[in-house]
Specification:
It is a single chain. The chain is built from 3 helices and 5 strands. α1 crosses α2.
Length: 154
């Protein structure tokens, strides 16, 4: 499919999609109590891991981000989703859905995720962990490999 067609699809999807809810599935933090975690092979702190999940259902699109952070001070998890109503969801290509996720949905969820992580670490008495700003260029390469789940909930 040509890029111009996908761009037009994304533009229609941005107009049609309506944010229904932002849901929190998990927030958790554990202090390491002074015990150091092993360093990564290149002697840096273990990185923050962000995983993005997309779920399509009739008339609905769900985008979920799960963050897991390991540092010398704490282990932190946060899991949030944005749920959109998309009346004509079946008409959009997988590529258009992924671009919508990259251009809109991730940036809807990220402030909730960022605040939850900072607050959770503050509450357990360690230096608040503040996720750095998220930029679209940081995500583009990763979203191509995302799988979209179209199954009905069980």
């Amino acid at each position: 499919m040509p890029d111009e067609v996908v761009d037009a699809e994304v533009s229609r999807l941005l107009d049609e999609a309506e944010l229904l809810d932002v849901r929190c599935y998990e927030i958790g933090a554990k202090a390491r109590a002074g015990f150091k975690l092993p360093k990564a092979r290149d002697d840096r702190e273990m990185p923050t891991e962000l995983r993005v999940f997309i779920q399509r259902r009739k008339g609905e699109l769900g985008v979920r981000i799960r963050a897991e952070i390991l540092s010398d001070e704490a282990e932190v998890r946060a899991d949030f989703a944005a749920i959109y109503t998309v009346p004509n969801e079946a008409l959009y290509s997988e590529r258009a859905i992924k671009q919508f996720v990259a251009k809109d949905a991730i940036f809807t969820i990220f402030p909730f995720l960022r605040e939850a992580i900072a607050e959770a670490t503050r509450r357990i008495g360690v230096e608040p962990h503040v996720l750095s700003m998220l930029r679209l260029k940081d995500l583009e390469g990763d979203l191509g490999g995302l799988e979209i789940d179209s199954s009905e909930p069980t």
